[in-house]
Specification:
The structure holds 4 protein chains of 4 kinds. Chain A has 3 domains: 11-102 and 180-195 and 361-425, FAD/NAD(P)-binding domain (3-Layer(bba) Sandwich), CATH 3.50.50.60; 115-168, no CATH class; 199-358, 3-Layer(bba) Sandwich (FAD/NAD(P)-binding domain). Helices cover 23% and strands 24% of the residues of chain A. Chain A is built from 8 helices and 22 strands. In chain A, the strands form 7 sheets. A 5-stranded parallel beta sheet of chain A has the order 3-2-1-11-22, covered by helices on one side. Chain A is globular and about 65 Å long. By secondary structure, chain C is of the alpha/beta class. Chain C has 2 domains: 4-129, Glutathione S-transferase Yfyf (Class Pi), Chain A, domain 2 (Up-down Bundle); 139-297, Rossmann fold. Chain C has helices at residues 21-34, 58-75, 86-101, 103-114, 129-137, 139-144, 179-186, 206-209, 211-227, 238-246, 248-255, 266-273, 291-297; strands at residues 4-9, 36-40, 81-83, 126-128, 154-157, 190-191, 232-235, 263-265. In chain C, the strands form 2 sheets. Chain C has a 4-stranded parallel beta sheet, sandwiched between helices. In chain C, strands 6-5-7-8 form a 4-stranded parallel beta sheet, with helices on both faces. In chain C, helix 2 packs across helix 3 (86-101). By secondary structure, chain D is an all-alpha fold. Chain D folds into 2 domains: 2-111, Alpha-helical ferredoxin (Fumarate Reductase Iron-sulfur Protein, Chain B, domain 2, Orthogonal Bundle), CATH 1.10.1060.10; 115-198, no CATH class. Chain D has helices at residues 15-23, 38-42, 53-61, 65-69, 82-86, 93-106, 115-130, 135-143, 148-157, 159-167, 185-206. Classes of the chains: A alpha/beta, B alpha/beta, C alpha/beta, D mainly alpha. Chains in contact: A-B, A-C, A-D, B-D, C-D. The A-C interface holds A 205-206, 208, 210-211, 323, 325-326 and C 173-176, 196.
């Protein structure tokens, strides 16, 4: 297990998504020591599960590759995966962090050769594909994962599978005796980059995500479009594998809604416009309907919206869909009223994609330290937060570009604190 | 380090390499063909023991050039980290055994592949040197900030708080920019934790303008020097040694050195007078910028209409006036914050003119994003601001007040609304200097004569209309290149501070339209990057994306023909020409992509660890079987950031890669020298594939134009092939994304088919 | 002493000779079996349901509920008010919530009550009988007392509107409440959990004033039950029961359908499953006989 | 209150919105509507509304006083509460619709012969007589609301239904003579009178 060498001049970055990686890298590349703590077994966060970015329609893995290379090459950064910050005490310039390390059951000897996965039989829902595919009980989270090391699912520990995996490993990389442990180390400033999670679509009961197979979320759709995803990049309906050509996007699914999230999640409009490209690129005879309250293509993204709007096979309906029902063939039917001039509709689609919003992934009660948040649970910049600075989507619903911008600024805020420590000590 | 090169090879036999390949043969290849002075194997080279073995060879045997044959150069980077020596890596795992099926029938070709990769890596390292910093720059903890608005001031305060000195250059007579003129500002924060959803809940309201406080902080900060009524009249040098002339209106000039530069030159309001349908010519039709002035003049009292001074009792806000439309004379984008501004201003009226002042906002798509935005929308509604989706056709006036003609999209009817005052939500236009590439890019498709004419016309136009902000004395123009519509934003989503002029970062509304909150966040990020650029320049390291790279371009002066291709093609405008018209590389401006190397027709440009030879010798050291063996050879030059990882991942996910392919990662396709192509053709390769990033408007090349340059250069390769009597199909350039895991191997397969069709190369000797 | 005791608000339609008198009869049987004692609020009055608004303003309407609350406080102190009619429950609960939210309004209501020498503190929880079953008794307990499981009876649980919205039962979803299905399963019956019209409006009071429009919706409710293979529809709401059951003749005439779908109350299901007679379960109150239940009752 | 009817209402001014706030149950919420249309799409009788709720809210804000108050739309509300639970802005739409109906009827602007409006009135009067609803009389009043001959026709049309109900003991002819009621009917009636007085006083104060 990685040794953590840290002092009061060290910056702790909590969360290894794109914001956390950025903050860690910007600080480390300016010569600061950084400990980067990530809960999942790999870095990259939600961005690694995206197929393309708006508005360029380029691939997030491209930037991921660069960032991972930067991390691999930078000796200033210590990465702890499967780790969670459970305690933070002290004051700016002199904190003590407590980090819980969950066993991976695989050590740094792992060469990612994959022999363990071949022999393990147990299969589980693949969280990387939001449960739309299965993975083995010994698995590489995804093909770009960093660290490039396998993980043993705790559910196989104590079973024959675990033993088989251990025996298959030629490099003594599997350690079934690993236990959860807690470590403590000092740090001078903390960057809180715990990001977001998709709002639980099952809670949006009128849309029947929990009842209808052909109602999925935008994050699931993103996996579906990815050639490395559960359907090999084919846009099909979960119920019967039929090509999904007539697709509805429902905006503000959970956002701008007192029943769910008060806030506007900012990115969902652009995400649906982007995903519309996936559909029209996949099928010549595609039909896309976007149901919206306001299309929030912010500032320079307006032309991206106008381009989609100009497509013959895409229609926009200013309406929050009232509810979804299904017909005998499992086709979802969106019901509602086009508010521009009051036209009722009952439109049958092959597939409905809910543009579910973003909520902070850490709730107030789970913060190890007092922190100022707003009604939505996002961290507000406040002097009361001391040497703890939010970065990225922990501070608001942000797109990747804005999140990275914000994280870069957060790195400087943390550097200012540790520079004061260095000044005082030096 | 001693001058003598001492070569050592290390071969890993783990991960199946030892099972699948004849390791003895590999060792022999390394020592005999690869001329390595020693060769050691280890069953797990990345283990502590394996790494110790290598370290021992370096420390005790004096090995200073090492070749590691194991997994991909992308794997086990932390383990194989030997910064003091030159190192090459032969990719036997992802590149060979994982890319090829098992079985006797494949054994021969698989072993050949592995042997070739060993030869290639040995050849590469033989021609490599350990890069060392040039020492051309020192540590300069001084930052130049152009623009004294909120963005510039924030950048200065944040950089100062990290220990850097800052000079702010402001063209006006006072700090603060537009924001200082606002009556109040949009709230930054959403409703606090615990706020109930009730009609009377306290939601965010317009906040008192606090720019004056910011100005006071700047003025009180002893690390910040402010130059008012001043402009930057000349900027030269490079990160770590920028020199700028700051000239005041009175003509006095001071010159100072800077480590890095921040351009926070802000924005200007769109000229709505150019669109008479909005009726701005009438006194009671004002822009949202002008309304701020009216509101300030009123103090906390009622806002009066300009025509006759009557207290305003009804206001209509026309959203997106002249914005977000594909119409002649309109801005194709919108400010993104106009709806928040109008809510703020409607609330001025509710507060100052009384609750019975009616305010109607005619929006298109109401854009109040995020948590604070949506709460502010609710806040406006609570105070009875009326919102409707309306398409405004015309604003007219008969003198006092004005009438808005619009279509109410909800009620589906045409309306004429008479009000005391109409406020136009106008767009934000970036305050950029002239785009160094504007002329070239838009006229690329024209004929040569038209191009010349267009260039001249544009030159004369830009000369009168756009003033330079930075006055860079760069070979490629005076200012930062622009992305779209005059904004000097980064092209990359993951890297918002990517800049095409190293060490110079834009922030605030010159990048994209934004409000005070965003501008302050952005300025903080830009300050971070500026500080980092200064730090990197001091240590001689490259900045993003090849962070930490100490190599830099050098050239053999005696061979240089002064053709200027390098100075013209450098995507970062790094290269100037000196008085004798030789290239001046300014390495801290350089991003180490090698485009200059690829551009140079006489092959005089090189990097310590990346040169014509480090690649050229690799391809020459591949064994080319004679034609009777019927084993073609396909050279693949793959961009190390996208295509190479795609091939790696293809192997990892079980895809086969052609046994005829020999893949060489390159920094960028822009660095590919034509000589490599002709050399490979002459050596008997049957095909060459270049895999680079997407080009065009949505280019994905991290060195901006490298991929484009390669494609352009290769267009001319056809002629060369023809003189050699070779089919042009033998050399292709593909755009390959990192996600092309299935496609990348398929492209190689397609080349196999081409070779099958046109036959093997006649140049096999 | 009974295990559970509540202040009972039966409502106008449950009275003898009124349209859901069978609800009250079966509720009483069910409560006997479950050891629930119901103390009727003395001299209770109409809640004005959801249709009184044409003539009654907010305060007059809510005052009606205030009187019932006040009477309950006075005569059945400390007992939760339990209603069996959706409209009664909704109107009373809504009034109670409104009094809580708006102190001024609460004072006004007490001023009004003073006219009849009454006053209320408005501390009494207003509950639906289904909440009592789900929260106080529980499905497990409910299953324990079953003597004659409703084996093989396919039941479409029709929750309707006002038992479900805006308050709902036991935190269940407004769109897909499951408690009726769970009750049916506890009783050994076969719940049609996919019954898609379970929360479809039957027209409510508009069944009287807008019969054509309402009957179209009722038709959908019955049709879906047939499509799902239901033997009968079960509901907690007296107005739903009446609207869905009694107009089937007229619907058949209007639309050429051949509906003959029994519509029963959950309380009838429980009474039968607990071994009581068809009469005790008030099955004689059915216009369309619930044959399968009668058969079980007579076994 | 007839002077209210002649009030001059300008377009997109807050006059009518304020009038609604002051006089209509839960009227304060109208301004919070964000025109998403969920209420309109959720209404089971939606197809029969000339102006669905969200449009009515927009009309109120646009100052379309007469069109709103004389509309029969609000009378289409079945009180199913779908709109309330789905509204992303928590507008108590059912109540606002009831409130608008009440207000329109008070002002005499509600459409004449609107069946639900008439039924509502009949219901209230029926209930106020004895404090509990007399279903038999309620049914009969409804049948005969448009005169004797229409009433006979209606009664005949529903004859079978009535017989069925009687057979099932769910309708009693005895109800015609007296029937159920509260004992303290005078107390109840005094209460309602008081409530009406308080409400009217408030409305007059708003004028």
């Amino acid at each position: 297990m990685t040794e953590v060498v840290a002092t009061n001049e060290t910056i702790l970055v909590v969360g290894g998504g794109i914001s956390g990686m950025t903050a860690a890298l910007e600080a480390a590349e300016t010569g600061k020591r950084v400990v980067l703590v990530e809960k999942r077994p790999f870095l990259g966060g939600r961005v690694s599960q995206l197929y393309k970015y708006f508005p360029k329609l380029c691939h997030p893995t491209c930037g991921q590759e660069i960032n991972q290379r930067r991390i691999k090459m930078n000796p200033n950064i210590t990465v702890l995966t499967m780790a969670e910050v459970t305690g933070l005490e002290g004051e700016p310039g002199a904190y003590t962090a407590t980090v819980k390390l969950t066993p991976r059951y695989v050590n740094d000897n792992c060469t990612a050769c994959g022999e363990c996965a071949k022999v393990v039989e147990a299969e589980f829902d693949n969280e990387f594909d939001y449960g739309m595919s299965k993975r083995k009980g010994a698995y590489l989270p995804h093909v770009m994962a960093h660290p490039m090391q396998y993980v043993l699912d705790p559910r196989i520990i104590g079973t024959d599978d675990a033993q088989k995996a251990k025996e298959a490993c030629k490099y003594d990389a599997i350690d079934l005796d690993m236990e959860e442990r807690e470590i403590q180390f000092p740090c001078g400033a903390v960057i809180w980059a715990t990001g977001w999670k998709p709002y639980d679509a099952a809670k949006i009961q009128p849309y029947g995500y929990d009842r209808f197979e052909n109602v999925i979320t935008n994050v699931e759709f993103e996996r579906m479009a990815d050639p490395k995803g559960p359907t090999g990049g084919k846009i099909i309906r979960p119920s019967d594998g039929k090509e999904a050509k007539n697709i509805a996007f429902i905006q503000c699914a959970g956002s701008r809604d007192r029943n769910h999230l008060f806030h506007c999640s900012r990115i969902c409009c652009m995400a649906s416009l982007k995903q519309t490209h996936y559909v029209v690129d996949a099928y010549e005879d595609a039909q896309v309907t976007i149901y919206y309250i306001d299309i929030r293509a912010i500032d320079r993204f307006e032309d991206f919206y106008q381009n989609v709007r100009a497509m013959d096979n895409v229609s926009f309906v200013k309406s929050k869909v009232a509810n979804i029902i299904t017909d005998k063939d499992g086709n979802p039917i969106c019901r509602g009223v086009d508010t521009e001039g009051y036209h009722r509709y009952e439109n049958t689609h092959d597939l409905v994609v809910l543009a579910t919003g973003m909520e902070p992934s850490v709730s107030k009660s789970d913060f190890p330290v007092d922190i100022v948040i707003n009604r939505e649970g996002f961290i507000e910049p406040d002097p009361a937060n001391g040497g703890v600075f939010a970065a990225g989507s922990a501070s608001d619903a942000l797109d990747v570009n804005r999140a990275v911008q914000h994280a870069t600024g957060a790195a400087l805020k943390a550097i200012q604190v540790v520079n004061r420590v260095a000044g005082a000590e030096g | 380090m001693s001058d003598e090169k001492k070569f050592a090879a290390f071969i890993c036999t783990g991960c199946g390499i030892g099972d699948r390949l004849d390791v003895k043969q590999l060792e022999m290849t390394a020592t005999r063909d690869g001329k390595m002075q020693s060769c050691q194997t280890h069953e797990m080279l990345c283990s502590k023991e394996g790494v110790a073995m290598i370290q021992n060879a370096i420390d005790n045997d004096g090995a200073n050039h090492i070749m590691i044959a194991a997994c991909s150069r992308r794997a086990k980077v932390e383990a194989f980290h030997f910064p003091t020596v030159a190192m090459s890596r032969a990719n036997l795992r992802e590149g060979v055994i994982w890319a090829r099926p098992e079985g006797d029938e494949h054994q021969e070709t698989t072993q050949e592949m592995a042997d070739d990769y060993i030869r290639m890596a040995c050849a590469e390292v033989r021609f490599m040197e350990v890069p060392e910093p040039s020492g051309e720059q020192g540590e300069v903890k001084n930052i130049l900030i152009v623009g004294g608005g909120v963005s510039g001031m924030t950048a200065a305060l944040e950089a100062a708080a990290a220990g850097f000195h800052c000079h702010i250059v402001e063209k006006e007579g006072q700090l603060g920019g537009w924001a200082a003129k606002w009556h109040k500002r949009i709230p930054f924060r959403a409703a606090p934790e615990g706020t109930p959803n009730s009609l009377t809940a306290h939601l965010p309201e317009p906040v008192d303008n606090d720019v004056a406080e910011l100005i006071a902080q700047v003025e009180a900060n002893d690390k910040i020097t402010v130059h008012l009524n001043a402009r930057v009249t000349r900027t030269s040098g490079a990160p770590g040694r920028f020199s700028a002339d700051i000239t005041t209106e009175s003509g006095q000039t001071v010159t100072e050195n800077y480590g890095a530069i921040i351009q926070a030159s802000g924005w200007k309001p769109f000229d709505i007078d150019s669109l008479p349908e909005y009726g701005h010519q009438h006194p009671d039709v004002v822009t949202n910028v002008e309304l701020e002035e009216l509101a300030r003049q009123a103090g906390d009292g009622p806002i009066k209409r300009p025509s006759d001074g009557k207290e305003v009792k009804s206001v209509a806000f026309v959203q997106n006036a002249g914005q977000a439309a594909d119409k002649e004379g309109y801005l194709p984008y919108h400010s993104g914050i106009g709806d928040l501004v109008s809510i703020k201003q409607a609330l001025y009226f509710k507060a100052q003119n009384g609750e019975d002042c009616d305010t109607t906002i005619l929006y298109n798509n109401l854009r109040t994003p995020g948590a604070a935005g949506e709460d502010f929308y609710r806040s406006g509604q609570q105070k009875m601001v009326i919102f409707t989706k309306g398409e405004v056709n015309e604003v007219t006036s008969g003198g006092n007040g004005a009438t808005v003609k619009f279509k109410d999209k909800i009620l589906d009817e045409d309306v004429e609304l008479a009000v005391d005052l109409v406020v136009l939500d106008i767009g934000m236009v970036p305050n950029s200097g002239p785009d160094p590439y504007a002329a070239n890019e838009s006229i690329e498709d024209m004929s040569d004569e038209d191009q010349q004419a267009a260039k001249e016309e544009m030159a004369s136009e830009t000369a009168v209309t756009v003033e330079s902000i930075l006055n860079l004395d760069y070979r490629q123009g005076t200012d930062l290149p622009q992305l779209k519509w005059g904004f000097t934003d980064s092209h990359f989503i993951c890297f918002p501070y990517e800049t095409r002029r190293t060490g110079i970062y834009a922030c605030g509304p010159v990048r994209r339209p934004m409000d005070i909150k965003q501008a302050q966040d952005d300025a903080t990020g830009a300050a971070m990057k500026a500080i980092q650029a200064a730090v990197h320049a001091a240590s001689g390291e490259a900045v993003h994306p090849r962070v930490g790279d100490l190599s830099y371009p050098r050239f053999r002066k005696e061979g240089c023909t002064q053709c200027k291709r390098c100075t013209v093609e450098c995507p970062f405008g790094a290269i100037n020409e000196d008085e004798e018209r030789y290239p001046q590389f300014n390495e801290s401006r350089c991003r180490r992509c090698g485009t200059c190397m690829g551009a140079c027709p006489v092959r005089v440009i090189s990097f310590a660890n990346y040169s014509i030879d480090t690649v050229g010798q690799q391809l020459k050291n591949v064994e080319i079987p004679d034609e009777f063996e019927e084993k073609p050879r396909i050279l693949v030059l793959a961009c190390e950031n996208d295509a190479y990882p795609a091939l790696d991942q293809a192997a990892m996910s079980g895809q086969e890669i052609s046994p005829w392919a020999r893949v060489i990662p390159v920094r960028c396709l822009g660095s590919v020298s034509l000589s490599w192509i002709t050399d490979s053709m002459n050596s008997g390769y049957d095909g060459v594939i270049m895999m680079g990033c997407k080009r065009g408007d949505d280019y994905q090349c991290h060195f901006v134009r490298g991929s484009t340059m390669a494609a352009e250069r290769m267009r001319k390769v056809g002629d060369t092939l023809q003189t050699l009597n070779l089919e042009p199909d033998r050399v292709v350039v593909h755009e390959v994304a990192i996600t092309d895991i299935e496609r990348a191997p398929r492209l190689i397969k397609e080349m196999e088919e081409v070779i099958e069709r046109v036959g093997l190369s006649p140049f096999k000797f | 002493m009974a295990k559970y005791e509540y202040s009972y608000y039966p409502g106008c339609s449950s009275q003898d000779g009124a349209s859901s008198s069978n609800l009250k009869r079966s509720i009483e049987t069910m409560c006997e079996e479950l050891d629930v004692k119901l103390n009727e609020i003395p001299d209770w009055n109409c809640c004005s349901a959801s249709i009184g608004y044409g003539s009654g303003g907010v305060l007059p309407r809510m005052s009606l509920s205030a009187r019932n609350i006040a009477l309950s406080e006075q005569h059945n102190p400390g007992q939760d008010i339990v209603a069996t009619c959706a409209a009664c429950w909704l109107a009373t609960k809504e009034a109670s919530e409104r009094f809580k939210d708006d102190e001024n309004f609460f004072q006004e209501a007490n001023t009004v009550l003073a006219e009849a020498n009454l006053k209320m503190t408005n501390q009494t929880p207003i509950r639906h009988m289904c909440e009592v079953l789900v929260e106080d008794i529980g499905y497990e307990k409910l299953a324990e007392g079953v003597k004659k499981p409703l084996e093989g009876v396919k039941i479409a649980g029709y929750v309707g509107c006002q038992t479900n919205r805006p308050f709902g039962i036991a935190g269940e979803s407004f769109e897909n409440p499951m408690y009726l299905d769970k009750m049916v399963e506890s009783l050994g019956g076969e719940a049609i959990t996919t019954y898609e019209k379970k929360v479809q409006c039957c027209g409510g009071a508009l069944a009287f004033s807008e019969p054509e429009k309402s009957q179209e919706m009722i038709k959908g409710i019955i049709e879906a039950a047939y499509d799902n293979g239901a033997d009968m529809i079960a509901t907690p709401c007296p107005l739903c029961q009446a609207n869905v059951e009694i107009y089937q003749d007229q619907i058949n005439e209007r639309f050429g359908t051949k509906f003959e779908m029994p519509v029963v109350y959950y309380s009838q299901l429980i009474s039968v499953a607990y071994g009581r007679s068809a009469e005790d379960a008030a099955l004689d109150g059915q216009i369309i006989k619930a044959k399968k239940l009668e058969d079980i009752a007579s076994k | 209150m007839s002077d209210m009817n002649t009030a001059m209402v300008e377009k997109y001014r807050n006059d009518f919105l304020k009038e609604v706030e002051a006089n209509v149950e839960e009227g304060h919420w109208v301004k919070m509507c964000m025109q998403c249309g969920v209420c309109s799409g959720s209404c089971p009788l939606g197809p029969h509304w000339a102006h669905p709720p969200q449009e009515i809210f927009m009309m109120i804000r646009a100052g379309k006083r007469d069109e709103v108050l004389s509309s029969d739309s609000m009378w289409m509300c079945t009180s199913c509460y779908n709109c309330i639970v789905r509204c992303p802005r928590e507008l108590p739409i059912t109540h606002i619709m009831h409130g608008l109906a009440t207000y329109a009827k008070r002002l005499g602007l509600a459409p004449k012969n609107q069946p639900t409006s008439q039924f509502s009135e009949i219901f209230w009067n029926n209930m106020m007589k004895r404090g509990r609803v007399n279903e038999l009389k309620l049914g009969l009043s409804l049948y005969f609301k448009d005169g004797f001959s229409q009433g006979i026709k209606n009664a005949l049309a529903n004859q079978k239904l009535g017989m069925n109900m009687m057979k099932a003991k769910r309708m009693s002819p005895a109800e015609f003579f007296g029937g159920h009621g509260v004992k303290d009917i005078s107390g109840l009636q005094k209460m309602i009178k008081k409530a009406e007085e308080i409400e009217l006083a408030k409305l007059n104060a708003n004028k």
